[in-house]
């Protein structure tokens, strides 16, 4: 009887310690899971914020030059393929006109030129693209930003046939600052050299000049706007 009593007494004393031994394992599992869940939420929120910051970046007169200066540093691509209703042609951009080259590559990668038009066609002179009367084009410009580019006419390039150049902004500016969203291609043979010094050549057509000539041959109406819309269906960087 006495032995049995001692046995129950010892069992009673040992029981709390047995129970306590299991509890830490249970308590350790839950906090670790919560910490992992919190960490994953923070990472997801950070990634979302980073994406939003990228999407919300807008070019301005104050930041455009610095942005394109940095953008062109590691820029290896120098060709853009333009696909139109009349076929495709390829433009090679000049490396030593860095801001205009970087701008054209950047806008192409952003998809800006897709579904814009060749909105000005002057027979035996130029075709001009990058604009449209479509509201989507205006929205794209608003999303990318409002800025101009300084001229860069001292690199020795002339407005030979096939040259791609950038027109001056319609905004009244005595320094001939360029409209970054538009471009024109010279079709005059051998060239339109009266444009030298006023506009910035930043590349040339190296394939598909016959397509450029087809566009230039299209009938136009008032203001040199083609009678039938001529769309750039796709602009893509050749990497």
Automatic annotation (TrEMBL):
Transmembrane segments: none annotated. One of its GO terms (molecular function) is peptidyl-prolyl cis-trans isomerase activity. The keyword ATP-binding does not apply. Its EC number is 5.2.1.8. The keyword Glycoprotein does not apply. PPIases accelerate the folding of proteins. It catalyzes the cis-trans isomerization of proline imidic peptide bonds in oligopeptides. InterPro entries: Cyclophilin-like_dom_sf, Cyclophilin-type_PPIase_CS, Cyclophilin-type_PPIase_dom, Cyclophilin_A-like. Residues 76-237 form the PPIase cyclophilin-type domain. It is an enzyme of class 5 (isomerase). It catalyses: [protein]-peptidylproline (omega=180) = [protein]-peptidylproline (omega=0). Keywords: Isomerase, Rotamase. This is Peptidyl-prolyl cis-trans isomerase. Belongs to the cyclophilin-type PPIase family. It comes from Maribacter cobaltidurans.
